[in-house]
Amino acid sequence: MELLKQRIIKDGRIKPGNIVKVDSFLNHQMDVVLLGEIGEEFARRFADQPVTKILTIEASGIGIATIAALHFGNVPVVFAKKAKSKNLDGALYLSQVESFTHGTVSEIQVSKKFITRDDCVLILDDFLARGRALLGLIDIVKQSGASLAGCGIVIEKGFQEGGQTLRDMGVRLESLAIIDRADENGFVFRN
């Protein structure tokens, strides 16, 4: 998605450890016009799937998933919670997720009443690095018995193993921008 790549070049920053910072437009401050374009692109790429729910993980994926849901006919968005909450009641799907950025392991949770075997679930998230968050979300979809439409990622770090791991598993993965290199010389994108 050329618009996204140009925005990454213009406003993205690279921090030590190959951390790609896009907090000025994607995952802290959000450019909702850009998110609308992103949502429209995901809807175009997954138009062949009968998506009934969009699943993401808190917190950065929520804005992306919410705006994208409007382009899928206003389907519900469900987000996996990373922390135990008194608001979550009843039966839960649980999965372990290791965060590359934060260096932590979380037990993500989704109420079983929100994803069932009758659903076709599309997973959306902002970044894909090592793939741990997506693997946890895919595990939740499998636990539910729902079908997986695929995974949509705004920015994939192509120089890390997550994308290849998921593709090798046969997961349909649509990344809007794949960065093959991010260093002091800038960004290099996969065509």
TrEMBL record:
Domain annotation Phosphoribosyltransferase: ranges? 49-158
Biological function = Converts the preformed base xanthine, a product of nucleic acid breakdown, to xanthosine 5'-monophosphate (XMP), so it can be reused for RNA or DNA synthesis.
Subcellular location(s): the record lists: Cytoplasm
Q: Name one GO molecular function term.
A: xanthine phosphoribosyltransferase activity
Assembly information from the UniProt record: Homodimer.
Keywords, A to Z?
Cytoplasm, Glycosyltransferase, Purine salvage, Transferase
Protein name (Swiss-Prot/TrEMBL): Xanthine phosphoribosyltransferase
